[in-house]
Automatic annotation (TrEMBL):
Species this chain originates from: Bacteroides caecicola
UniProt entry keywords in alphabetical sequence: Signal
Domain of life of the organism encoding this protein: Bacteria
Coiled coil region boundaries: none
Name of the molecule in the record: Right-handed parallel beta-helix repeat-containing protein
Signal peptide extent: 1-20
Annotated ranges, domain Right handed beta helix: 126-262
Pfam family name, one: Beta_helix
SUPFAM superfamilies: Pectin lyase-like (SSF51126)
Length: 465
């Protein structure tokens, strides 16, 4: 698989603070375009209930109610298809529309002509960015495989209520949960999510409760209203997460947990490398969020990641309870050889009654009880007030973007310039235990084998272009 950089399409929105609404909040925002490939729709149809077969290239599919790919069936969504979810909901309770996958789903966009899963264009406004307008993709325990390639998924995160299919199936709890943009739940399933844009969601970008997965070369932006992460992994998963840009997740870019581990649902296994996480953790209270959070016996290798203007460093709560399958830290894990960069700007939101952290460099050097000093990040490069360790991006000013902003600008370029400090000091990728799970054997989905990116000998998603 030739993984390619795929940045946000469409017109960039004006940067804004989390609490500051712009004067034109009721105006449509081009968040990826209503016609991703620029072609006129070949056909338009309206669907609800069971769906399968093929939605042909460049068509428009309007979704008026819950849709389900039945167990044993498959749905292929070809390049340029626009799947538009009604925000009116279902029934008198206006239950957010859910896309349930009991069978298999293949979203087959291209770089020039991505698939779009969104809401009506007139409702793609700044004011709706984090409101959760539909229910997201929920792959159940019977979903054997799923491909999300060159696909834009946005404006999800509706509240799970009585009548929500995920509540009826026992996947989420009515009144307590909001839909992630993508959910998986089959410990034997194969899931490939690549080259895609996952943005503007109330809850997590990706919530993996089971399966083998490659999550590579995606762009995440504005994930989480008052909590949530870009990628959230639980027990029963074996995952490679690499080459992703994660901009302004509410809590962490990566939350890696073996919560739910049992005799049938095995320890969470994650290789997370060469990701770039920016502006993480500032939009929520508490000291739980910052960039990377590893808990409850997850066995992880987290290395060669680039954190820029995040609130805290990598955290491992309960690390003193080594190898405790309920709460502790799997001490065979390696969380090291990462790079923490800081701009000079102060956060507009400072929780004085908690840490009082107002600058990224301050959070990196804060005496946090969940910093496993001398073990986690023992060899990482960490900014200070005197040395912000500017990664020298081609086009992103680490001093010029508000720490609480969640508005992605598609002109940003996270490649680095020649002479950047992120090009030296990274892990060289020679230790077999740090190797990606699916770099050699790959994962087979819909008859094609996809492989994880090789470990790059630099920090972050991109080196020199």
């Amino acid at each position: 698989m030739n993984f390619k950089k795929y940045l946000l399409a469409g017109t960039a929105m004006m940067a804004m603070s989390f609490f500051a609404a712009c004067s034109d909040d009721d105006q449509p925002v081009n968040n990826g375009g209503s016609e991703p490939g620029g072609d006129e729709p070949e056909q338009t149809e309206t669907v609800s209930g069971e769906v399968e077969g093929t939605w042909t290239a460049n068509s428009v599919v309007n979704v008026s109610g819950h849709i389900t790919v039945p167990e044993g069936k498959s749905l292929t969504i070809e390049e340029g298809v626009q799947v538009i979810f009604s925000t009116s909901g279902v029934g008198t309770n206006h239950v957010p529309i859910e896309f349930t996958v009991e069978g298999n789903l293949y979203c087959e966009g291209t770089e020039a002509n991505p698939v779009l899963l969104s809401i009506p264009e007139a409702e793609r406004t700044e004011d709706n960015t984090l409101k959760g307008m539909w229910g997201g993709i929920v792959a159940t325990e019977s979903c054997d495989e799923m491909l999300i390639d060159h696909t834009i998924i946005e404006y999800t995160g509706g509240q799970v209520t009585d009548g929500s299919p995920a509540a009826s199936a026992g996947i989420y709890t009515a009144g307590d949960d909001a839909y992630p943009q993508i959910t998986t739940n089959n410990i034997n399933g194969n899931y490939v999510i690549t080259n895609s844009i996952i943005r503007n969601g109330w809850s997590d970008g990706i919530y993996l409760m089971g399966g083998n997965a490659i999550i590579a070369n995606n762009t995440f932006a504005a994930n989480g209203y008052d909590g949530a992460e870009a990628v959230n992994v639980k027990a029963g998963c074996k995952v490679d997460v690499a080459g992703n840009i994660m901009f302004s997740p509410n809590t962490n870019g990566l939350k890696l947990s073996s919560s739910g581990q049992s005799e049938t649902r095995g320890q969470a296994l994650i290789q997370a490398y060469n990701n770039t996480i920016i502006n993480s953790g500032w939009r929520r209270d508490g000291e739980k969020g910052g960039c990377i959070y590893v808990e409850k016996n997850a066995l992880v290798h987290v290395f060669n990641n680039l954190m820029v203007n995040c609130k805290f460093r990598a955290m491992t709560p309960s690390y003193k309870l080594a190898n405790d399958p309920e709460e502790g830290y799997a001490d065979a894990s390696v969380i090291d050889y990462n790079y923490y960069a800081s701009g000079s700007q102060e956060s507009e939101i400072v929780f004085e009654d908690e840490s009082g952290v107002a600058y990224a460099w301050e959070g990196y050097n804060y005496a946090h009880e969940d910093y496993n000093q001398g073990v986690v990040d023992a060899h990482s490069l960490i900014a200070t007030q005197e040395d912000g360790k500017d990664p020298m991006f081609v086009n992103f000013d680490i001093n010029g973007v508000s720490l609480t902003s969640y508005t992605y600008n598609d002109s940003w370029d996270f490649h680095v310039q020649s002479g950047s400090p992120v090009l030296t000091g990274a892990y060289d990728g020679t230790d077999a235990t740090m190797a990606p799970f699916f770099q050699t054997s790959g994962l087979t989905v819909n008859g094609e084998t996809y492989t994880s990116p090789a470990v790059a000998n630099h920090f972050g998603a991109y080196g020199i272009e």
